[in-house]
Design goal:
The chain has 196 residues and is mainly alpha-helical. It has one domain: Ferritin, core subunit, four-helix bundle (Ferritin, Up-down Bundle). The chain is 80% helix and 0% strand. Helix 2 packs antiparallel against helix 3 and helix 2 packs antiparallel against helix 7. The termini are far apart. It is a peripheral membrane protein. Pathway: Cofactor biosynthesis; ubiquinone biosynthesis.
Length: 196
């Protein structure tokens, strides 16, 4: 792909501005709602993985990594909770379901293997970092402060992604299938959380 086609491809993921009064606010509400839901789910994925692996023989290093990554996600979550309040936006109605799904995903991948837990991180973070990249492009001109925050969060998500690869995510059992299923689930959750 050329640089020009990369730009065109990226532009296609960014929604066109909607006409009408209040549409910018409605779009911001969608963005905040889905970002809050994503960070909420990430906290629960890492928490469940840590619960499975913490205290097991030979798993101190990954437990420490999971604690650190959960901490990053908790900071992101707290910021989006504040933004929801400041902007008077309700969280998605799907929060109880996302908590169950994230906990099951985290625990399930950790029970499969340490590498499956890393594969989960890689898959989730690959979707989230692209989602943030699209949002950064969308809000860069109208809300540079939010774009800067999203940029910082995206960089942390990319660090989690790269850490997972460095620790064997692609050696997980049924890696391609596991990764594909998780990515599809994340993309569906994004669309649902924007709307509901």
């Amino acid at each position: 792909m050329t640089e020009a086609s990369d730009t065109v491809a990226a532009a296609r993921r960014i929604p066109l501005p909607r006409p009408g009064v209040g549409q910018t606010r409605a779009r911001m509400a969608e963005m905040l709602r889905v970002d809050h839901a994503g960070e909420f789910a990430a906290v629960h994925i890492y928490r469940a993985q840590r619960a499975v692996l913490e205290g097991r023989k030979g798993k101190a290093a990954i437990a420490a990594d999971l604690t650190e990554m959960e901490g990053h996600e908790a900071v992101h979550l707290a910021r989006f909770e504040a933004l929801l309040t400041e902007n008077r936006v309700r969280p998605t109605a799907m929060i109880p379901l996302w908590k169950l799904a994230a906990t099951a995903l985290g625990a399930g991948t950790a029970l499969i293997s340490e590498k499956a837990a890393h594969a989960c991180t890689e898959a989730v973070e690959s979707v989230i970092e692209q989602h943030y990249a699209d949002q950064i492009e969308e809000v860069r001109d109208r809300d540079p402060e939010l774009a800067a925050e999203l940029t910082r969060f995206r960089e942390e998500e990319l660090a989690h992604h790269d850490h997972a690869i460095a620790h064997g995510s692609r050696e997980a059992p049924a890696y391609r299938l596991l990764s594909s299923v998780i990515k599809v689930g994340c993309k569906a959750a994004i669309k649902i959380s924007e709307r509901i």
